[in-house]
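sanity check this:
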Amino acid sequence: MTDTTDPTDPTDPSVREHDSFVRRHVGTDSDTQRHMLEVLGYETLDQMIQAAVPSTILLENDAGEAASAVPQGATEPAALSELRELADRNTVRRSLIGMGYHGTHTPAVIQRNVLENPAWYTAYTPYQPEISQGRLEALLTFQTMICDLTGMDVSNASTLDEATSAAEALMLARRTAKRNGNVFYVDTDALPATKAVLRGRTDGLGIELRERDFATDGAPEGQYFGALVQYPGSSGRVWDPSEVIAEVKSTKAVAIVAADLLALTMLSSPGSLGADVTVGSSQRFGIPMGFGGPHAGFVAVRKGLERQLPGRLVGVSVDADGNPAYRLSLQTREQHIRREKATSSITTAQVLLAVMAAMYAVYHGPEGLTRIGRGVADRTATLADHLVASGFELTTEAFFDTLEIRATGEALDIAAQAAEAGYLVHTVGDDLVHLSLDETVTDADLRAIAAVFDSFAPDPGHELADVESGTTWGPLVRRDAFLRHPVFSSFRSETAMMRYLRRLSDRDFALDRGMIPLGSCTMKLNAATEMAGVTWASFNAVHPLAPREDVAGYLEMITQLETWLADLTGYDTVSLQPNAGSQGEIAGLLAIRAYHASRGDSGREVCLVPSSAHGTNAASAVIAGLRVVAIDSDARGNIDLDDLKQKIKDHGDELAAIMITYPSTHGVYEQEVRTVCQLVHDAGGQVYVDGANLNALLQVARPGEFGGDVSHLNLHKTFCIPHGGGGPGVGPVAAKAHLAPYLPGHPGIQQEEHPVTGQGAQPHSGSPVSQAPYGSASILPISWTYIRLMGPEGLRHATASAVLAANYMAHRLSESYEILYTGENGLVAHECIVDLRPFTARTSVTVDDVAKRLIDYGFHAPTMSFPVAGTFMIEPTESEDLAEIDRFVDAMLMIAKEAEEIVSGAWAKDDNPLVNAPHTAASIATGEWTHPYSREVAVYPGSWTAPEDLTTHDSAQMRIQSKYWPPVRRIDQAYGDRNLVPTWPHETD
């Protein structure tokens, strides 16, 4: 008997009776959706999807559901119970492994008020600075913390981890070095993961990576453009690199130092030693190890290199009233503007973790950080003295927190006994034991560790001495003050700290306040149930290099998630290692290059990138060593097939790949996507499908089945990891089986083989793109839980609901605005582009004016001027209810009417509520009001003041009472770039 149920139809009983979480996740219920469909002229969701999605790629309603690798949706208690079972299969031992990851105490006030607070974790990257002042202030504090500790002049607002920060610094050195050459030197004592990531990044760029033991051999000779010194080294070695740095700089090469922030509370800063660039991680400032992440890396530079920094940079400017205000500075460096000429492809960074690290410094202050650093150093010295007295040999004379102990032929036995005692150490072969202490190590731990070594001591019987202060490093002892700004000394009590965090979050607009309709950003619900596992110790207290037997639960969850994602996308295998979409792009492109090289086609170096593609595409292609050739769009926003054919003909055997976004950033399902893929395949190229818009495809179409060879996915978009105000994210790379061997591997990975559809399992053997084997592993439970809760039917329903919301919104907005691109049947995908250029030409009201005026109406602006200048790209997602969608449309329509007041002459072009937006409370509290519009129009526009039933939750009165007040007026962007202020001043503010 044929199954006639429609899993995307809200009128179908199987959907109404589906697990309640789907109804919790999707904001519109069956009655609401029926109304929206009537407005659009369709009877069912499935009918609308059939009209929007090309029949050549559309999946049937029940396609693959019976045999799907994704289980049917579970209830919230059941999903959490399954997740807890996985977590409980992990064994949490006290990690002394080090290697860039350390135990740390997360202050409860920060965990509760930042990490677990949707006002922080549901915000987006602060492109609208007027409504992001709290986050921007916190990031300025992060930058100040980094600059003070490293002795550098300017720091970015976070990168993805230490290893990728080193790779970014390498590229910075190549751009800026005044010496020719293609050689880069890395310290033999650098972190192994850093060396592995650098090796992968340099392979395709014609850069020769050489290792050198700088402490023993000094600075290199010959032609090279940069060198990286690890300080302290991965062996724990502390030595003075100032002479090496000076010699490197004397050759006009760039001197980079990879530093440990906690060590810098004790040791001379890299800046004082002469470094041009300092990189590292802020993980040990209150961020759990999390089986590898997420953590906030950083790149800090001397003055003169700030325009070469990767990622975001926060600076101080002024608003329309001359008040200080924060903003993102020097944005013309970034990929969304510079594309293939950008300094980096990073978009999502690690803002939430940077905020936590900054608040850790605020919480402890300079005295507290010094006390923590001193405690770690003194305990390490005490243990070292005991080991030496017991007959062990240390390979380093000076150290901060890490000891390398020679235990010839017994290292593995020592490690095994340590594990039995509840401690993990790192071994190099069977002769060397590494152990790193941290702030969580107590005196009792020290005695237990010493007891393990006593069992193997050449000269046993010595008592462990009491810990005493006095560790010194001679001329390397830090003598200058740091964290001198009052922000680092003003919030010692928990009451003060709690209120400070609240004041900061109150200045921001996040999803807990209202819709954030940013196109291609998918600001959907991050459900509380999905977030639950993030703070479980059995997930977040695990070291990324813990032995395989200790991480059985993690590995099973990862295998399940890889299998589910492969099934949902139509690919054969998935790597979860990339910790951002940009890194997933790099991983996919490097896999394509390696595949071509394996077939003797190393000359294929051209990457075709449509003009409508995300800016990261072009930037990532350059980083992967490819040459970008742009493809035009036709009048309907589709890839111009004639231009594509011509470019394929022009480049022939040079063609490596095409990068397409599907649905395109023009907001449509392109009809000829299969044709595009086939043309490239016929020419010997590979097809990269950017997965940023996968929220319009889940269970509707599969990229791996309509022609894609590889894609990156954004778990922080489609799969509900929150954006965190600009990170963290996860950017898995999914590929067909022929590319599986070239996906990212890792020297420390616990499970080399990954599921490959139809082929069992096989290793991913490509170069790593992240510091940890599984990237930002501790947030993977969020996406695991989302998929487990939704099931295949729920995911399809979510996709259809997102497309419905976008089309309903586009239909209503078309009353006053032009929808720039639509598909074959006049429909858009999950987002639409509203063309404000005719509106601007007629009214003089710019896209910036509309964006800022939306703040007065209580909304975050859509994506501005991308991919087309002078437009909005709007994506409502499936999680918003009809009242919020209608309220946004009403605001846009009211703004159109307000613009008519300018056209009529009632309001002057230079004095009206649009050009003056946003309006703060202070701006209307003045004694004299000289504007041609009322104070009420300024701050309670349109329907805010309309008489309504005051008993409803969304009445005008209720909205007035809960109004978000922007803390500053419109910010002067140019002033902030001309007068760059990237840190707090050291004097009293």
About this structure: The chain is about 35% helix and 10% strand. The chain has a mean pLDDT of 94. The first helix runs from residue 13 to 16.
